[in-house]
Automatic annotation (TrEMBL):
Pathway annotation from the record: Cofactor biosynthesis; adenosylcobalamin biosynthesis
Protein source organism: Candidatus Entotheonella gemina
Pfam families xrefs: PCMT, TP_methylase
CDD domains xref list: AdoMet_MTases (cd02440), Precorrin-6Y-MT (cd11644)
Keywords, comma-separated and alphabetical: Cobalamin biosynthesis, Methyltransferase, S-adenosyl-L-methionine, Transferase
Protein name as annotated: Tetrapyrrole methylase domain-containing protein
């Protein structure tokens, strides 16, 4: 018996009332219905097995794979499942022919419709489980329209305080709550009036810039397309991946447009930033636990106008949990937790994905090689020692840097 495709139905805040006949027919014919608690609650009379989708996505994927082989299975998801939704996770684990998507209107699309404003030129930033600093790149580019996914910590009042504290008081703010539902509300706020306001947790924030962008917007046309000089990036005491080593690492990472790239222990963010300048369609996450280093990444993202570099303030591997599964990972720093990080990366990296790790010490190289040179990986290592000319009286000599050991591994 050939398994039927897994049908993924986008659903709005009005539940079944907003679905097409095609979607309703699939749900009616389903023997297994999966979705979040809120989604399943829209169908209290539905009889059959229900699968609750929660944060344990590995369990959910296993259940969906098993149920799809046994009976017609329908997955309920918010809005457009392929727009910051579970659709990407499903597409990464199931072959295309086994999936059928029926998207609904996304919350961002509805929000701009309520504002009667086009959104093809809007920047979209998710603050869900991410620091407010993730908003800086879009603000640094003086984006005319910004749509924000919020969460319990990054709520509208917190966003307004962040804007005021950082001098971005030239934005109007709209809060769009319960979009598509009977309790829908869209309100316009001055930033200073938001401090004590309370909103439904189901909200989208829209920022609209007042006036033109200043003519003093940072220009970086003097910088090369590839191979950023160390002095062009904010960093601490030489703690930056040198340009030549950075280019080798990028070559080994073999990035492709549209891929997800993690830069773990990003430091100044130099590798992530070089990658960002190669393709604006890359989804790049720079993970860094040190607040001072994070400040350097923020500054560099603004200087280079690379808003698709998303900053994650936290320590790996814990900080990796909410991120989409990567296609490529650079490990620049591990904070002594390399075995845990490699284990998490091995679990999340997509088949054929690449890991590149730079090692300065023999001990780190030995540990990294032992973790990546096994039956789960195809691994290689390269030793690089650079020498640079230095004056010697009226002549010149070569002075050698310490060697760097680069491990590159592909997941089998």
């Amino acid at each position: 018996m050939t398994a039927e495709p897994l049908v993924v139905v986008g659903i709005g805040h009005d539940g079944a009332a907003g679905l097409s006949q095609e979607a309703l027919t699939h749900i009616r014919q389903a023997e297994i219905l999966a979705g979040g608690v809120r989604h399943l609650a829209f169908f209290p009379q539905w009889e059959g097995e229900k699968v609750v989708i929660d944060a344990d996505l590995k369990r959910v994927i296993r259940q969906l794979e098993a149920s799809r082989q046994q009976a017609k299975t329908v997955v309920l998801a918010s809005g457009d499942p392929l727009f910051y939704g579970i659709g990407r996770t499903l597409a990464a684990h199931f072959p295309p022919e086994s999936l059928y998507f029926l998207p609904h209107v996304s919350s961002v699309q509805l929000a701009f419709a309520r504002l009667k404003t086009s959104w093809h030129d809007a920047q979209i930033v998710s603050l869900h489980g991410r620091p407010l600093e993730s908003l800086r790149p879009a603000l640094g580019q003086y984006a005319a329209k910004i749509a924000l996914f919020t969460d319990a910590a990054n709520h509208p009042a917190a966003i307004a305080r962040f804007l005021l504290a950082n001098g971005y008081d030239n934005y109007d703010l709209w809060v769009c709550e319960e979009l598509g539902g009977t309790a829908e509300r869209v309100t316009h706020w001055k930033l200073r009036d938001l401090d004590d306001a309370a909103f439904s947790p189901l909200n989208i924030v829209i920022l609209i810039r007042r006036g033109d962008a200043p003519t003093s917007t940072v220009h970086n046309s003097h910088l090369p397309l590839l191979g950023l000089p160390e002095q062009s990036l904010a960093h601490r005491d030489g703690m930056i991946t040198k340009r030549e080593i950075r280019l080798l690492a990028l070559g080994y990472l073999a990035l492709h447009p549209g891929e997800v790239f993690w830069d773990i222990g990003a430091g100044s963010g130099s590798v992530a930033l070089e990658a960002a300048r190669l393709s604006s369609s890359l989804q790049i996450f720079a993970i860094e636990k040190d607040e001072n280093a994070l400040g350097h990444i923020v500054e560099n993202v603004q200087t280079l106008a690379t808003p698709h570099v998303q900053l994650i303030h936290g320590e790996a591997p814990g900080a990796l949990a909410p991120l989409p599964d990567p296609d490529a990972v650079f490990i620049g720093g591990s904070g002594g937790r390399l075995p845990d990080i490699v284990s998490a990366v091995a679990d999340r990296l997509r088949p054929g994905g690449r890991v590149v790790m730079n090692c300065i010490t023999l001990e780190n190289f030995t540990l990294g090689w032992s973790l990546l040179n096994n039956g789960s990986w195809q691994a290689e290592a390269t030793s690089v020692q650079l020498s640079h000319t230095k004056p010697l009286g009226q002549m010149h000599r070569f002075t050698s840097d310490s060697p760097i050991f680069i491990i590159q591994a592909t997941k089998l």
